[in-house]
Design goal:
The protein is an alpha+beta fold and about 650 residues long. It has 22 helices and 17 strands. The longest helix has about 30 residues. It is elongated. About 45% of the residues are buried.
Length: about 650
């Protein structure tokens, strides 16, 4: 009776760890009232847009799934990023319960953690038959601290099918079960629909499984299947059927690769992890935040390198020799552990960089891989092998050492503590972004003329928050069911970057001309009282390498102050329709040449007019002179103030530096 009771208690462990993980990770991150959204205001809300677009397509509110109504007039916009089609039904379910789109996204986010736990638990349970270790391994897979380094890219969360795919593929390799191959290949196809990145990485890992299996087991029986006509036809049929299932999606992604080409290897190399990245922890970790500093000075995108998954999986790796050298451990178990280690090692070796060298260069030209940039995301797949090693090492120790069996009782608690977090850095207020989108939607609705085909939106406060600004427009237009030029996505087509950076009419013309479209079909919606051709943002630097500052206590007078290396004041230089420029301070005040005998330059106007307009005349080396509305040029007085009281020959030189 006691044995049966103990078994029943152990069977509850996966449920306990699942709910513990959900409470400690996604629920805690979002707050129990769901007031916070995980990630940043960029990718998180873009993925929310993609899911909402799929929901609207399912409802028949948009005519074509792949032509989402942003980046107008570009077609096939969804194929510029991950599409999340595989998990769209989860989002649709919560939308059908009358949740708003942000709350539905939060429930989708939470569901991905639950599904990742369940998928990994099922695979580990089938692999090992051990409930306790499978539960602990699934917890690491679903709630490990390494995920915090990728939480800004929630498109990598749908990975619940990957552990089962690798289990099924192992079943095929080791037992030659064709049905297991069918499950594995179909699961791989589904992973592509969940996310292209992880689909390619999963395929990549499966290739290394084949190599490791042949090296460790020296089993050539697998090749004989291709000699047997019936078996070969069956395998061929499985592949053909799944390629047919993939075609509706790939037919949209392949033209994108042809149009935009591959990323440069120099760009990709910046995102390749180092071996030390696997010991680089997120600073939010309770136990391991001291491991969050050693790559910050050596990596450009160091925050993409948080690949440390806690100490317990690495302890398992260190304990491997204990089992390999133990005479009581079966050779089959030793070979299996060798296979796991070999696959994990190859996957890491071919995806990291050393100083000036990487093996990844050998495979970057494989189909699909040249389009991917963030190779560090492969951790989401190869961690499965580290977890399986963790499970089988501790299982072997439990079987061979009584003390290990007693220690194992504390393993669930140790796993939770190993992956505990002290604070959440990457979240934002749900109400805040909802209000931002509503404000944009209200402005568009107030100005919109239905006779135009699309709108292009010009923000007032834009620089430094370009991505959230464009997404506010995309989400507002999604609510209003209208098309917009504004866009954020994984890849921009040629000639769009200019509009993405400035929102100016000049760059809009270039974008529309590139697409052979009529600019007159676009309505400009602006937060100013005017529309503008172009704008730049930066510090005004004088020829003596000092920055222009605004005296907020002296009527907003401009003067030459700190050295160039200081932070200084930032300005928007906006080109108007007539070619003249206005200068706006970071305090939302416009620069003016005052009507006085000295023509003092101040920044204290709430709106631009005649006296707030200037003409910039290029000189050389990016320097220019500035002509004020009083037909005088701006100079610098001995006490370092700016005045518009000089002839052209005595004008001071300035340049704008971001």
């Amino acid at each position: 009776m006691k044995l049966n009771r103990d078994i029943r208690i152990v069977e509850l462990l996966p449920i306990v760890l699942l709910f513990a993980g959900l409470l400690l990770f996604p629920v805690s991150m979002m707050n129990r009232d769901f007031s916070r959204i995980p990630g940043d205001k960029g990718d998180a809300r873009f993925n929310n847009y993609i899911l909402e677009h799929g929901y609207k397509y399912a409802k028949g509110e948009v005519p074509d799934y792949w032509d989402a109504p942003f980046l107008y007039p570009h077609r096939n916009t969804i194929a510029l990023s991950d599409n999340l089609l595989g998990t769209l039904p989860v989002y649709i379910f919560f939308r059908s319960l009358k949740c708003d789109k942000e709350t539905s996204f939060q429930w989708w986010f939470l569901s991905m953690f639950a599904l990742n736990f369940l998928g990994c638990y099922l695979a580990l349970r089938k692999w090992s038959g051990n409930v306790l270790l499978s539960s602990c391994g699934a917890y690491i897979y679903a709630f490990s601290i390494y995920l915090l380094g990728h939480i800004n890219h929630v498109q990598i969360l749908p990975k619940f099918i990957a552990p089962l795919v690798l289990f099924w593929f192992w079943q095929y390799l080791s037992k030659k079960r064709i049905v297991s191959l069918a499950f594995a290949v179909t699961g791989l196809t589904y992973q592509f629909y969940c996310g292209m990145y992880l689909g390619f990485f999963l395929f990549y890992v499966m290739l290394f499984m084949i190599i490791s299996y042949l090296v460790i087991y020296r089993d050539t029986e697998i090749f004989k299947q291709f000699i047997q006509r019936k078996t070969a036809l069956t395998i061929g049929g499985i592949i053909v059927v799944n390629l047919a299932l993939l075609y509706p999606m790939l037919s949209h992604y392949i033209p994108v690769s042809g149009q935009l080409g591959f990323r440069s290897f120099n760009e990709i190399s910046l995102y390749l992890p180092r071996w030390s990245s696997y010991f680089f922890s997120t600073p939010e970790s309770y136990l391991w935040n001291n491991l969050s500093y050693h790559l910050r000075d050596s990596e450009v995108y160091w925050w993409e390198n948080f690949l440390f998954c806690g100490i317990l999986p690495w302890i398992a790796v260190l304990l491997l020799p204990v089992l390999w050298l133990h005479k009581g451990v079966k050779m089959e178990t030793k070979k299996f552990l060798g296979f796991l280690v070999a696959t994990f090692f190859l996957c890491v070796l071919f995806s990291i960089k050393f100083d000036g060298f990487t093996f990844y260069k050998l495979i970057v030209n494989m189909p699909g891989f040249g389009s991917m940039r963030s190779i560090n995301r492969i951790i989401n797949i190869i961690i499965i092998f580290q977890i399986v090693i963790f499970v089988f090492v501790f299982k072997g120790l439990q079987e061979k050492y009584k003390l290990a069996g007693k220690v194992m009782l504390f393993l669930p608690l140790m796993v939770v503590i190993d992956n505990s977090v002290t604070y959440w850095e990457r979240t934002f207020s749900k109400v805040e972004v909802q209000n931002e989108v509503k404000a944009v939607a209200d402005r568009i609705a107030a100005q919109q003329n239905p006779s135009y085909k699309a709108i292009a939106y010009q923000h007032k406060n834009f620089f430094g928050k370009e991505t959230p600004s464009h997404l506010n427009v995309m989400l507002a237009c999604q609510d209003l069911n209208i098309k917009c030029v504004n866009a954020y996505t994984g890849l921009f087509p040629p000639n769009f970057q200019g509009f993405a950076d400035t929102e100016g009419i000049d760059s809009l013309y270039r974008w529309m001309n590139y697409n052979h479209s009529d600019t007159s079909s676009i309505q400009i919606i602006t937060e100013f009282d005017f529309s503008f051709r172009h704008r730049q943002h930066g510090r005004l630097i004088s020829s003596n390498d000092k920055v222009v500052l605004r005296d907020s206590t002296g009527g907003g007078r401009l003067y030459i102050g700190a050295e160039k290396g200081a932070v200084g004041e930032y300005w928007d230089v906006i080109t108007m329709q007539d070619g003249k420029k206005i200068i706006r301070s970071q305090h939302d005040k416009f620069v003016c040449a005052e009507l006085s005998s000295v023509g003092e330059i101040v920044s204290n106007r709430d709106a631009p007019g005649y006296w707030e307009s200037f003409i910039f005349e290029d000189v050389k080396d990016d320097f220019f002179i500035i002509k004020a509305a009083n037909e005088k040029y701006i100079g610098i007085t001995p006490d370092q103030k700016l005045i518009a009281n000089e002839v052209k020959e005595r004008a001071s030189l300035f340049k704008l530096e971001r």
